[in-house]
Every structure is written in C-alpha cells, then in structure tokens.
Specification:
Order of helices and strands of chain B: HEHEEHE
Distance between the termini of chain A: 48 Å
Number of domains of chain A: 1
Radius of gyration of chain B: 21 Å
Structural class of chain A: alpha+beta
Shape of chain B: elongated
Strand order of the largest sheet of chain A: 1-2-3
CATH class of chain B: Alpha Beta
Strand order of the largest sheet of chain B: 1-4
CATH architecture of chain A: Orthogonal Bundle
Number of helices of chain B: 3
Structural class of chain B: alpha+beta
Helix content of chain B: 10-25%
CATH class of chain A: Mainly Alpha
Largest interface: A-B, 28 and 21 residues
Radius of gyration of chain A: 21 Å
Number of helices of chain A: 16
CATH architecture of chain B: 2-Layer Sandwich
Number of strands of chain B: 4
Number of domains of chain B: 1
CATH superfamily of chain A: Cytochrome-c3 Hydrogenase, chain B
Helix content of chain A: 40-55%
Strand content of chain A: 5-15%
Largest sheet of chain B: 2 strands, antiparallel
Oligomer: heterodimer
Order of helices and strands of chain A: EEEHHHHHEEHHHHHHEEEHHHHEEH
Chain lengths: 383, 108
C-alpha cells in the first residue's frame, strides 16, 4: 500500500514553486515524479526581440544569484559570433567577478542548507560572512547583487588599485572563517547526523545522468569547465578542482566550502597578475550570420548558451541551458530509498534555481504526446 | 563539546553585526548606481540615452522637450549615463525610491 505525498507548488520548504510527487510506503520514498514549468517567463523569446546590447541586461535577470555567470556566458557567446577579442584586463576582471560571485553563492547555499536541517545558528554565521563578499561586489561593480559589469567586448568598470588592499584584507578574513566552517561541518554531531549518508548519488549515476557542477564533483566525477574548456583568464591561473568521493549531502557541503577556499586563491592570483590595458573593444551593432556556443562554470555547474545571428542587430535564436536543468534527473537516485524527513535537505543539496530552469512543453493529456506551439498559434489564441 | 559553541558564546559579548537600517544609514560606496538624474541645462537632445536604455524607461517630456526617466522601469544599469556625450545624466547615491506619488517616480 503506497501513499502519494504532494510537495509543492506552494510549500514552506520550497523557495520557488515546483511540483514534486512522492510515492511513499510508510516513511520510505519509493518513487518520485517532477513537474516543472510553474514559473516559465518566456525569456528566450524575449531575447530575440531585443538588440544584442540590450540583451545583456535581460540575460542578467535570468538568475539573480548567478547574474555575472549569465552575462559572462552571454557576452562570451556573442563575442564568438562577432569574432571579437576581449582585452586582457577585461578577462581578468571577469574572472575576479565570477569568483566573487561563486563565493557569495556558495555561502548563500550553505546558509540555506543549514536552515533546512534546522541549524539556524550556522545559517546566521554563513550569511554574516556573505555580507563581506557583497560589500566587495558593491565596491567593484556599484551594486550588491546585479553587477551590470560585463558588456560586449569587455567590462564596464575597472578594478582600481586602491581596491586591492581592501579586497585582500577581506579575503584573508573569509579564508579564516571558511576553514573554521569546514572544521565545524565535519565535526558537529547535528550536521553529521542529518547529512552523512543521506541522498547519496553514486559516481555511475552521476556519469549516466550527465549531472554537472558541485553536485557531480561531490560524487567523484572530475569535471570542471574552468579547467576543461578555459574561458576568461582561467588558462593563466593555477587552481585545483575539488573532488569528494562519498556523494552524500555532507560531501556536497564540503565540496562547496572547499571551492570557496579555491576561489579565494584564484582571486588573489588574478589581482596579482592583473595586466594593464584597455577595458573594452568596440563592437558593431550588427552581426553577420553565424552560430556560436559558449559555456562557463556557474556556481551551480555548467551553464550553456547557444546563439544564432542573422545579420541584423537582433539574434535569431538564443538557447540557455542553466545548470539546475541538467541536475533535475539526479533527484530520483538521491530520493528513492530515503525517508520523508530527508526531502528538504536533499532537495536543497543540488542548489536548485527553478526560475532559471523552467521551459514549457505542451503535452496532450489523452495521448501523452508532446508538441511545440508556433508563435502565430499563440497570437491567434490570445485574440 | 560542539565546536560552534565557542563562537556562539563569543558572539554574546560582541556588538551586533547588523545595522539597524532605517535608523542608522550606511553611505553607499563611490560609484554606486542609484537613481539617475538628468541635468537639463547640459542636455543637448541627442536622444542617445533613449537608444541605450535596455528597458525603454526614458521618454521625452512634451512640455520641456527634454528626456525624463521613469524609475518604475529603470534597472539602474547606468548605460544612459555612459552614453550621454555631455554627462548630463549622472547616477546618484539615492536608492530609497518607494513613493505614493507617481510624479516623484520620474526624474523631473
């Protein structure tokens, strides 16, 4: 005898509306069904209606937390389309911004995870230190969260020499705090009891389902776009790819916290090696017919942009594949066999960002066939 | 003993990390992108700001024949301030823009 536990679209443990249908037998989860599409915003269509330069600010708003990752990926793809070389200084500044964002995103996630297991003290500590990174971002880019720093052919703002001592001081402080947090997370009994051996994703499953980002690195898969397909200035900087073997929630916490330490090292190197030179190159508004694919390592995993140009100042098509979309299949092997009490923390463990993910597919309820709706059809229906 | 207890005890004797915002205000850093303002004396009516704006937040005032920015649509990206050839548009440090009066949600 099995019961169905609906989880969402409106649920206190979910930060964004998405529907999960758990089939349970007693306490044990037997099956899981995911239904996406509650916050579809039609951004890919809107990207086709605006010019390349205006699209930067729309791409920035696909995800608020990883906005620098989205603009970097977008600008990189369009620069490939138009065959533009980015100045060296701009590449290094992009690297610094991306890594600052990774630190703040991982700290934010660690805070949310601590909150999901009911450890609110740790949650407050994580978010207190996240403020330090946000202050750095505000100093460099002029805003705490939405940086608006990237532009086609470079960056809009410089990292001035007088910022460097402040940044190094804050990074030192962060490094000390992060080491302490790793110590706490690996020794605290409460955390170990809730995270160890929970939501295990094996290496075979991670490879089979093509999982990306820290989720797959926690299962022992050695994948990192920063090293495998270097963008910005990552080919001139030495860093380690963090890997844990266990694949449970604790491994995901440790991977993310150790990545913060690695990001701090990358920022220090980038600040030291910051070359002199111009910040941006001129980009013509119209781009010849071409196609390009750009990918970067966002805080949550591989972020992929694909663009086609048609000779005008607007793109023909832009396709975005955010990391959470690739990570959704990992829910099934992580949940099945677990208990109901594990749901919030296991769901949070892939760092889901559903608003980036949502796509629309029309499925006929009688035949179960999916089909695509043309734009004319949509307009006709609206009249 | 849990390792976090020591920090918790230390924090009892520290002063609070949070700033009591509406009562205590923190000055935003140099280069902060707050509400944009237009200096009408400097404006030469080239309409470059209207072209640069990604959200179409800038329109032309019919009476004064000068541009005005509607904060309801503005995303404070600063493209207009960058595009302006005479530096008539500047980003201020003002970020408290909530208002009941729709006229105040416009830059002049």
């Amino acid at each position: 005898m099995t019961f169905v536990v609906p989880f969402g679209p409106q649920h206190p443990a979910l930060k964004e509306p998405e529907y999960f249908r758990f089939e349970v037998k007693g306490e044990e989860i037997i099956d899981l069904n995911v239904r996406l599409g509650y916050i579809h915003r039609g951004i890919e269509r809107a990207l086709q209606e605006r010019s390349y330069l205006h699209n930067i600010y729309l791409a920035e708003r696909i995800c608020g937390i990883c906005n620098v990752a989205h603009t970097t990926a977008y600008c990189q793809t369009i620069e490939q389309l138009a065959n533009i070389e980015v100045p060296d200084r701009a590449r290094f500044i992009r690297t610094i911004l991306c890594e600052l964002e990774r630190i703040h995103s991982h700290l934010l996630w660690a805070g949310v995870a601590a909150h999901e297991i009911g450890f609110n003290t740790l949650f407050m500590f994580f978010w207190r230190d996240r403020e330090l990174v946000l202050d750095l971002k505000e100093m460099i880019s002029g805003n705490r969260q939405i940086s608006a720093s990237n532009t086609l052919g470079g960056v809009r703002r410089d990292v001035k020499p007088e910022y460097v001592p402040t940044m190094l001081r804050v990074l030192n402080k962060l490094e000390k705090e992060t080491k302490y947090y790793i110590d706490v997370c690996t020794s605290d009994r409460t955390i170990l009891a809730r995270c160890m051996g929970v939501g295990v994703l094996t290496k075979e499953d991670a490879i089979k389902l093509c999982i990306v980002g820290p989720t797959t690195r926690a299962s022992g898969v050695d994948v990192d776009i920063r090293r495998d397909d270097p963008y910005a200035a990552y080919d001139e900087i030495s860093f380690k790819v963090i890997i844990e073997r266990e694949g449970d929630v604790l491994a995901k916490v440790i991977v993310r916290l150790r990545e913060i330490l690695e990001s701090i090292r990358i920022i220090r190197q980038a600040l030291k090696a910051l070359p002199r030179g111009p910040l941006r190159t001129k980009v013509a508004p119209k781009i010849e017919p071409n196609e390009a694919l750009g990918r970067i390592e966002a805080p949550r995993g591989e972020l992929l942009y694909y663009a086609i140009s048609n000779g005008t100042d607007k793109p023909e098509r832009i396709r975005v594949r955010p990391p959470t979309y690739a990570n959704i299949p990992s829910f099934k092997p992580m949940f099945v066999g677990g208990t109901i009490a594990e749901i919030p923390i296991v769901m949070a463990s892939i760092d889901p960002c559903f608003a980036c993910t949502d796509r629309v597919t029309l499925v006929d309820s009688h035949t179960g066939k999916a089909r695509v709706v043309s734009f004319d059809e949509l307009r006709g229906r609206r009249k | 003993m849990p390792k976090i207890l020591l920090t918790v005890v230390k924090n009892i004797f520290r002063k609070p990390f949070t700033v009591k915002y509406p009562y205590v205000k923190v000055e935003p850093p140099e280069g902060f992108r707050g509400a944009p303002v237009i200096d009408k004396e400097k404006c030469i009516r080239c309409w470059l700001c209207i072209k640069a704006c990604p959200d179409r937040a800038i329109s032309v005032n019919k009476e004064t024949k000068k541009p005005s920015i509607w904060h309801g649509r503005c995303t404070f990206c600063g493209e207009c301030a960058e595009a302006c050839p005479t530096r008539a548009i500047t980003m201020t440090k003002n970020f408290e823009l909530a208002t009941f009066d729709i006229q105040q949600a416009r830059s002049e």
